[in-house]
Amino acid sequence: MDEYEKRMFHKAAIDSLVSITTAFKPDTIMMSGKEKLIQDELAQRYTKRWVDMAYNFLEKAELLGTGYADYAIVLMGLKVAKPETTP
Fewer CB atoms inside 10 Å of the end CB: C or N, the chain? Predict the structure, then answer.
């Protein structure tokens, strides 16, 4: 497998995993109208699980090579926290 095929393979895998991760995003599920009323504690646990899943996925994407984690972040619609600077 040459370098181009390898990059396309990784990109396709990331695209698939991002679509799965995005489908389980808490705000997507809660806004879909199919949800039951969720207690605050349950919603917080669900959100924490999703964040853990997304973080784990981003770690794996970073191991594939430079740029894959950034690509996944953009696809998932996440924002990267920038360090605060004091003037």
Answer: C
